[in-house]
Write a structure and sequence with these properties.
InterPro entries: Ankyrin_rpt, Ankyrin_rpt-contain_sf, Ion_trans_dom, TRP_cation_channel. This is Ion transport domain-containing protein. The chain is mainly alpha-helical and about 950 residues long. Among the domains are: about 220 residues, Serine Threonine Protein Phosphatase 5, Tetratricopeptide repeat (Alpha Horseshoe); about 190 residues, Serine Threonine Protein Phosphatase 5, Tetratricopeptide repeat, CATH 1.25.40.20; about 130 residues. A hairpin with a 5-residue loop joins strand 7 and strand 8. The radius of gyration is 41 Å and the shape is extended.
């Protein structure tokens, strides 16, 4: 941070550099925000307005102005050259925290900014506001306020510069304090040639000034510089020794640590340290030892009783975080072994994984050893492994996020095997499954199938266990007693919230590189069980819609569309009497269902084509029910469209069932591709239609002759419709007028037949057949994909927020007894629990018996509410399970054979070594 600046040159003080930023601009809003008003008032020194704003909004003092300044208003006022001392005084009087620091500005506080500003009146206000006498010596990156003034103050303001130095010295600032380079204030002043500063320090300091203990890199002391440059005319103080000044013990210890003099630290007063938790305003002794990588010093402090978790206001990083960031293995192990050390597992794991591939420095830095030691600590706490391995850092990144991005495959496999979740979301909504390689995920899924490899495969009680831990997003654990440490809290009961269990699988169903994994037995069995959990929702929804559909059809044909106006039979009257109330009830249920989906996930709702069909159906059905006696021309189109849309919706709803999902997927895929290609060639179709209109339209004078049939080429619209009909092969060439332009009309019509009717139609038919064959060939996978997406949609509906988050926050503010964040659980919790496979079971395991027809067993019956133990997997799933079992047995056998071969090879090498030894013995016994 130190810069060489001449006393008169063109260098700018750091305070000016910090303030050369884009000023805060008012927007075009009619009512500017309070924070923008306060900033403007401070910059304009409108003290009256500042006081009024802070009187009404005292919290504005803590507001951080980003990205223009990245600090609160007091630090802005102390650093801006245009802000007067009166404005700063108004902020201090309003309660501004004088100790607030700016991390982005080298950890400076108001005192440092005021010193760099070189304004004696502002600095005087700050000095008066200091809470404790020792606060004047607060350090920022090793610099006190006098260091900052000498390094970054505006020395061109000679009068103000000297007055600022005098204020600090007279207030008792430690003039012998050294910065991180070991330079004292007077040494810096002498180095820069600041004669006035040297004079003030020597004459005004209440303490004896040390001119000899600190040296520049060229070995020159402050005394040498003052004498050689003639910076002081009076007599200089004598050399500081133990005989004329009592050296502060803590300062000596900090000096040793700053210089890396570990032996001097350990030998000072024979290692007898009374204040082991002392700090210099910036670091504790232990923090500084950890920062410098001094393992012996850290060990000595811990043995003497230093607090391993103690921090300072300037350095809020605990010692274990400091060593983790730097990879100091020895100190990290010392801190982990200390019984009082609080271990932030998420921070430690993510840090080690982030720097896992960094270079090692033997005996000092080794991130891999730190990681291995921490993992051993985690394995020893197996009861809380699942919770600890999924803890997140400040960006909500889990250790698995970092392992996938920065580490190797072995680390990824290790975390997955320990239960790291693939569904842990960071602040950007990114899950680890987004970045993991498909091959790594497939191997992990294979390891999620557990069975007794030594057991008989064909026994009836042969079982296979599926572990779904990594597929389930981590749950939020609410700890009851925040005052206790982490280990004690983890042993208490926690509340496990419901999560969207199929979120990871839903992503895999949409990512092309993962789709094939949906046929894996682990995924298949999970989806199979999830379907059995939510099929009651499908059944209820389908039954309700059947009632709506049939009541609508009966009402239309028996009452609404009775166009013959004949008297109804008694049976028809009965049907109408029954259908009307059923139609009313189901219609309003349909409206409620759609409104509920809109409220929970509006973005997802309006991206679905099926939902638009439902909305149009609701409006048309409403018109049919509530319109009073419309004419026949209105009723017929409404009735026809409503029946068609209702039938479409019924087909799509039936497609949600696994048995029919493949058929609906074929319909959707073929329709989408057909219309996509048809739209691409629509230009040719329209061109032919307009050509037919020009060629085949009849131009007659007087009364046109009466002819059978309708002429479709009387206007361009009818011509386009007729051309589209002709795509199906219905040419009706006998009614076409080839006589007016015989040559041209025949050529154009022939081109249409070959290019459109033959080539294009066959191309579209071939495309449809190709899509159908492709879907049929992977019908099982297509069914799994459709099932996964439908299950995830149902889950998101049941676990989403019924009311918008901002409305929930308002409720929570108005009614303190109502928790807005849990309001949706109060309403939907019973349904959500029935839809989730593991709402209570923490083992996340399921056992299947392939030789019992795929019978299912769950360790805790409450996980499935008693239904799981009566379900059997389908034959394809059982076949896949047997295939995986066979493959893993073969792999195990290969490993066993390799081990046997290695043992035999070692025996051979041992015997050869013994034989060689005997031959040497014999050779030595033979005469030369």
């Amino acid at each position: 941070m130190e810069k060489q600046r001449p006393t008169s040159g063109g260098y700018r003080p750091l305070s000016s550099e910090l303030n050369d930023r884009t000023p805060f601009q008012r927007t075009n809003s009619i009512c500017p925000s309070p924070e923008s008003q306060l900033l403007e008032a401070v910059l304009q020194n409108n003290i009256v307005h500042v006081k009024r704003l802070l009187r009404n909004n005292p919290d504005l003092l803590n507001y951080v102005y980003t990205p223009e300044y990245n600090k609160p208003i007091l630090l802005i006022a102390c650093s801006d050259e245009n802000v007067t001392a009166g404005t700063v005084q108004a902020l201090v009087d309003a309660g501004a925290n004088i100790s607030t620091i700016s991390e982005l500005d080298q950890g400076w506080s108001a005192l440092h900014f005021g010193a760099a500003k070189t304004d004696s009146t502002t600095l005087q206000v700050i000095l008066k506001a200091l809470n404790h006498p020792g606060d004047i010596n607060v350090l920022a990156k090793g610099n006190n306020a006098l260091h900052v003034l000498i390094k970054h103050g505006d020395s061109t303001k000679s009068g103000e510069f000297k007055r600022c130095v005098q204020l600090l010295v007279e207030e008792g600032i430690n003039v012998n304090q050294t910065d991180n380079n070991g330079f004292s204030s007077i040494l810096l002043a002498a180095k820069k040639g600041f004669r006035d500063v040297v004079e003030v320090i020597l004459e005004k300091s209440p303490f004896q000034v040390d001119l000899d203990s600190h040296q520049l890199r060229n070995k020159k002391t402050a005394r040498d510089l003052i004498l050689s440059e003639k910076l002081y005319d009076g007599p200089l103080p004598g050399e500081v020794t133990n005989n004329n000044v009592q050296t502060d013990e803590i300062q000596v210890l900090f000096e040793c640590l700053k210089r890396g003099n570990e032996n001097g630290f350990l030998n000072y007063r024979n290692g007898d340290i009374e204040r082991v938790d002392a700090d210099d305003g910036a670091n504790t002794l232990l923090q500084l030892s950890c920062e410098k990588g001094l393992a012996k010093a850290a060990h000595h402090l811990l043995d003497k009783g230093a607090d391993p978790n103690r921090i300072t206001p300037k350095n809020t990083e605990t010692p274990i975080k400091i060593v983790a960031e730097r990879g100091y293995y020895k100190i990290f192990k010392l801190l982990c072994e200390h019984p009082k050390t609080e271990k932030p597992f998420a921070y430690l794991l993510t840090t080690f994984l982030k720097y896992f591939e960094n270079d090692k420095f033997p005996g000092l830095i080794d991130y891999q050893q730190c990681y291995s030691y921490l993992m051993d600590q985690l394995r020893s706490n197996s009861d809380q492994m699942s919770f600890l391995i999924n803890q997140q850092d400040d960006s909500k990144n889990s250790p698995l996020h970092y392992a996938i991005r920065y580490s190797d495959q072995e680390r990824i496999d290790e975390l997955l095997d320990l239960g790291a979740s693939l569904g842990s979301k960071n602040k950007s909504g990114v899950m680890p499954v987004h970045d993991i390689e498909p091959k790594i995920l497939e191997r992990h899924l294979n390891r999620c199938i557990e069975f007794d490899k030594s057991g008989k495969k064909y026994k009836e009680d042969f079982s296979v266990t599926f572990n779904y831990r990594t597929l389930i997003p981590p749950t939020s654990n609410k700890i009851s007693n925040v005052g206790k440490d982490v280990e004690e809290n983890l042993n208490e009961s926690v509340m496990q919230e419901l999560v969207a269990e199929t979120e990871v699988i839903a992503y895999m169903s949409q990512a092309p590189e993962f789709k094939h994994l949906l046929a894996h037995p682990v995924i298949v069995t999970f989806l199979f069980m999830k379907w059995h959990k939510i099929r009651w929702i499908f059944t209820v929804n389908l039954a309700f819609y059947f009632a709506f559909f049939f009541s609508l059809v009966i009402y239309i044909f028996c009452s609404y569309a009775n166009f013959t106006h004949t008297e109804k039979s008694s049976f028809e009257s009965f049907l109408v009497t029954v259908s009307i109330p059923v139609l009313f009830v189901t219609f309003f249920i349909l409206i409620f269902r759609e409104l509920f989906q809109m409220a929970v996930f509006p973005g997802k709702y309006f991206k679905s084509f099926e939902n638009y069909i439902e909305l149009v159906l609701i409006f048309i059905t409403g018109a049919i029910i509530f319109t009073n006696s419309p004419d026949e021309n209105t009723r017929k189109p409404l009735a026809a469209i409503s029946i068609l849309l209702a039938a479409f919706e019924l087909v799509l709803m039936l497609g949600q069932h696994p048995r029919f999902s493949t058929n609906v997927v074929m319909l959707r895929t073929v329709s989408y591709n057909f219309f996509k290609f048809l739209i691409w060639y629509s230009l040719l179709i329209v061109a032919f239609a307009l050509s037919f209109y020009i060629i085949f339209s009849k131009t007659t004078v007087g009364n046109p002759p009466e002819e059978d049939g309708e002429d479709f080429f009387t206007d361009p619209g009818k011509s386009i419709f007729k051309t589209i009909v002709m795509l199906t092969g219905e040419f009706d060439a006998s009614n076409l007028n080839f006589h007016t332009f015989p040559f041209t009309s025949i050529i154009i019509f022939s081109l249409f037949i070959f290019m459109i009717a033959i080539i294009l139609v066959n191309l579209l038919n071939g495309l449809a057949v190709s899509d159908t064959q492709m879907i049929k060939s992977s019908a099982e996978l297509v069914g799994h994909i459709a099932r996964a997406q439908h299950i995830y949609y149902v889950e998101t509906m049941l676990l989403g927020n019924i009311l918008p988050k901002n409305m929930l926050a308002k409720f929570e503010d108005l009614f303190c007894c109502t928790s807005g964040s849990n309001w949706n659980l109060i309403v939907l919790k019973p349904l959500a629990e029935k839809a989730c496979l593991f709402p209570r079971c923490k083992q996340f395991k399921l056992t299947a018996y392939p030789n019992k027809g795929g019978e299912i067993s769950v360790s805790t019956s409450s996980c499935c509410f008693g239904y799981c133990n009566h379900i059997k997997l389908d034959k394809e799933a059982v076949k896949e399970i047997n295939s995986i079992v066979r493959m893993k047995r073969e792999e195990s056998e290969d490993v066993r054979q390799e081990s046997v071969c290695l043992q035999k090879l070692e025996q051979v090498l041992t015997k050869m070594s013994e034989l060689e030894s005997k031959i040497d013995t014999i050779m030595q016994c033979l005469p030369e």
